Each structure stands twice: as C-alpha cells, then as structure tokens.
Amino acid sequence: MNFSDQLRQEAAPIFDAIMEHPFVRGIANGDVPKEALIHYVKQDFEYLTTFCRIYGLAISKCENREDMIFFRDQISFVLNDEIHPHNNFCEVAGVSYEDLQKAALAPTAHHYTRHMLQAATTGSLGETLAALAPCPWTYWEIGRNLMNEINPTTDHPFYDWITFYGDKDVSLITETFKQKIDACAEAAGPAERSRMMEHFLISTQLEHQFWTMAFEQEKWPVPEGVLK
Ligand SMILES: Cc1ncc(CN)c(N)n1
C-alpha cells in the first residue's frame, strides 16, 4: 500500500467526522449562521497567508525545479483563486471581504498554523508535505462528496464554494501532494515516516477543529488587546 493510502486509512475516522461536521452539513443544506461564515473567513484569510509563507519554506527544501514550480503555483492558487470561495461566504453573510482581513488568529487557527510552521522549519520536505496535505485533501473530499450528494444548481447559496473545491484543479493538487509524499516516504527511514504520519494526523484533526472554531466563533479566554 502506498504511504499516502496508509495516511488516508489512519485518518479515515477524522475525514468521516469532518463530513458530518455541522458547518459542512450547513454548506450542503445552504444554511450556515452568518456569524460562523464571518469568523471562518476572518480566520481563513490569516491561515492562508501563513500557508503561503510555509510554501516558501517548502521551496527552500526542494532539490529540483519541478517541485519548486509546484509550490510556486500553489502560492498563486491561494492568492488568486482561493479568494473566490471566501467571496461566496462573504456574499451569503452580506459583508465586505476587505472588512474581514487582518484579524488576530483564534486559538485553533494559531495552533494549526504553528503546527505546520514547526514541521516546515524543523522537518524534511516529506514532513512539510505531510503537515500541509490535509488542507487541500480534506477540502477536495468535501467538495467532491457534496457534488455527488447534492449536485448543486446555481441557485444554491454555496454553489461557488462547492464547485470550487469539487473541481478537478483541487483534485489534481491533492493527487500531486500524494505523489510527492509517496516519493519522500520511499526515500525516508521509519522514524521520518512516523513523523510524517503524526504531522498528517494532527493537521487532519486541526482541519476538523478549524470548522468547530468557526462554527462556535472561538475566541481567546480573555480576548484583550491585539488578541481581541
Ligand atoms: C483551514 C483550511 N483548510 C483547507 C483549506 C483549503 N485550501 C482552507 N481554505 N482552509
């Protein structure tokens, strides 16, 4: 079995729980509380900014130009394309995207970004890929499953979001992540493979927790100063 298949197998209960998450079910039903959409976009804007920085760290670990081009293209995808699903949430919530930028990271978003930064700062390219992969992988599965389940028409409030993540572009990004993870795992020893597994599982857990953070509008226990 490929290492990426082993990752998916170990993480299966977390993937299943993400599909059943009330925020994700709300996307399917076209009914997510406005406050949850706003909190999500505020946090995700900052999360994705950090994601681009981590792609920069990943580039510094690449040993060939093909890998560098992949990460460069992913930075462009985040900066130029992933604004569309954010805009969809903003339109449904009736707020301006610009007004939701520059928020302080809530505890879960802080934890998740620091987890990935730690993997990318101290680990190999394989460890970095394993920590980053649940980001495209879980969204691709949500998009694909919702396309199959409800096959939304243009009058569905989250048509743009679902069709964006259920599209072949996100499928291809996920497939490329898997191939690169498999190549790194083949060259890695057991200790590195074990770290890759741990990074992947923690990031998948934090994907689930990120939906909860937005749904419950998680804040710091004493939200003062720059942490408001
Ligand atoms: C937290 C999170 N995870 C994944 C994605 C999809 N790239 C996202 N926008 N935000």
UniProtKB/TrEMBL annotation:
<dbReference type="InterPro" id="IPR016084">
    <property type="entry name" value="Haem_Oase-like_multi-hlx"/>
</dbReference>
<dbReference type="GO" id="GO:0050334">
    <property type="term" value="F:thiaminase activity"/>
</dbReference>
<protein>
    <recommendedName>
        <fullName>Aminopyrimidine aminohydrolase</fullName>
        <ecNumber>3.5.99.2</ecNumber>
    </recommendedName>
</protein>
<comment type="similarity">
    <text>Belongs to the TenA family.</text>
</comment>
<comment type="function">
    <text>Catalyzes an amino-pyrimidine hydrolysis reaction at the C5' of the pyrimidine moiety of thiamine compounds, a reaction that is part of a thiamine salvage pathway.</text>
</comment>
<comment type="subunit">
    <text>Homotetramer.</text>
</comment>
<dbReference type="InterPro" id="IPR027574">
    <property type="entry name" value="Thiaminase_II"/>
</dbReference>
<feature type="domain" description="Thiaminase-2/PQQC">
    <location>
        <begin position="9"/>
        <end position="216"/>
    </location>
</feature>
<dbReference type="GO" id="GO:0005829">
    <property type="term" value="C:cytosol"/>
</dbReference>
<keyword id="KW-0378">Hydrolase</keyword>
<dbReference type="InterPro" id="IPR050967">
    <property type="entry name" value="Thiamine_Salvage_TenA"/>
</dbReference>
<dbReference type="GO" id="GO:0009228">
    <property type="term" value="P:thiamine biosynthetic process"/>
</dbReference>
<keyword id="KW-0784">Thiamine biosynthesis</keyword>
<dbReference type="InterPro" id="IPR004305">
    <property type="entry name" value="Thiaminase-2/PQQC"/>
</dbReference>
<comment type="pathway">
    <text>Cofactor biosynthesis; thiamine diphosphate biosynthesis.</text>
</comment>
<dbReference type="GO" id="GO:0009229">
    <property type="term" value="P:thiamine diphosphate biosynthetic process"/>
</dbReference>
<dbReference type="Pfam" id="PF03070">
    <property type="entry name" value="TENA_THI-4"/>
</dbReference>
